[in-house]
Amino acid sequence: MNPLEVLEKAYNLFLVSDIIENESKIDIEIENLLANKDYNNIAKTLIYTLMYTINEDPAYKDIRQIYMNYLIDLLHMIDRIGFNNEMIIKIFVKLIYQFYSYSLQYKIKLIADKEKRELVKAKLNELVDIIRS
Amino acid sequence: MDIKAILEKTYEIFLELGVFDKISLVYIFVVRGIDEEVKNLIEKGEYEKAMRKIIYTVMMNINNEAMYEEIRIDTMNKCIDLLHGIDESKIDAWDNLEEFINIVYSFSLYTLENKKDLKTNKEKQELINTKLRELVNIYKSNIK
Whole-prediction pTM value? Predict the structure, then answer.
C-alpha cells in the first residue's frame, strides 16, 4: 500500500468537497509536505482539519464525541508507529470514509449541490479502492 | 525555558485533578495508564511525546465530559493549533511553550472550579492551587 497515494487521494477529496474548516490555510502547507513526502505531517495536518470541522460545525454534532475520540486515537498511533503502516493507513481511510458518508447525508452544502456530491462520491471511491485492492 | 520543570509540574497537577483516567480507556495500544507513560517519557527526556500526550489528555477530557461543554470549542481549537505548532517548529519554541502553559492553566482552573469531587475538597483545592502557582512561577522566571 502506497502511503503517498493514499494521502494524495485524501487531499484531493478534501479539496473538491469544500466543507473543511481552515481549508485555505492547509493548501500551501500540504503541497509543500507532499513534495517532501513527509507522510506523518501530511496525515496529521489532514487529521487536524477534520478535527477543526468536527469541533466547530454543528452539522456533525451527533457524531462529534465518538469521532473526535477516534481522531485523537489515530494521532496518538501515528506518534507511536508512524503513518507508513498498513493498519494505520486503513484506519485513516476508514475514518475519512465515515466522515464523508455522514457529510453526504447531513451536510446541506453536499445535499443541495448535485455536481459536487457526485464529485465527492467519485473521489471517495478512489480513496477507498486503494485499501480494497 | 525549563521544559522538564513545566512538564513535571503539569504532570503533578493533572494527577491531582484526576484527569488522566479518561484517556487510558480509549487507546487501543496503551497497556499502562497514560499517567505512567507521561512520567516515563519525562524521565527519558522525550519531552515532545510527553507534551503531546498531555495535550491529548486535555482533548479527551473536554471532548467526553459534559462539564467542559462551555469551553469545548475554544479549548479544542487551541489544542489542535498547538499540536500543529509543535509539528511545524520545535516544542521549545517560545510561542508553543507559552500556549502550552496557557492551555494547562485554564483547563486546570476550570476543572478545579467545576468538578464535583474537587469543589468540596478544600485540602485538595489548596494543593492544586499551590501547584498552579508554581507552574506560573516557572513561566514568570523565564520571561526576561
Answer: 0.91
Find the CB nearest A48 among B64, B73, B83.
B83
> Cβ contact (<8 Å) for A65 and B80?
no
User: Which among A48, A69, A79 has the least Cβ separation from residue B26?
Assistant: A69
**Each residue of A74-127: pLDDT tens digit?**
998 899 899 999 999 999 999 999 999 999 998 888 888 899 899 999 999 999
Q: Which domain holds residue B36?
A: 3-142
> Cβ(A1)–Cβ(A89) under 8 Å?
yes
Alpha helix (H) ranges present in chain B? 3-17, 21-24, 34-44, 47-64, 69-88, 94-114, 116-119, 122-142
Question: Which residues in chain B are contacts of A44 at CB distance < 8 A?
Answer: 83-84, 87
Contact map slice: A 54-113 vs B, CB within 8 A = 55-56, 64-65, 68-69, 72-73, 75-77, 79-80
Task: Give me the number of domains chain A comprises.
Answer: 1
- Where on the phi/psi map is residue A22: left (φ > 0), alpha (ψ -120 to 50), or beta? left
C-alpha cell at A74: 489515530
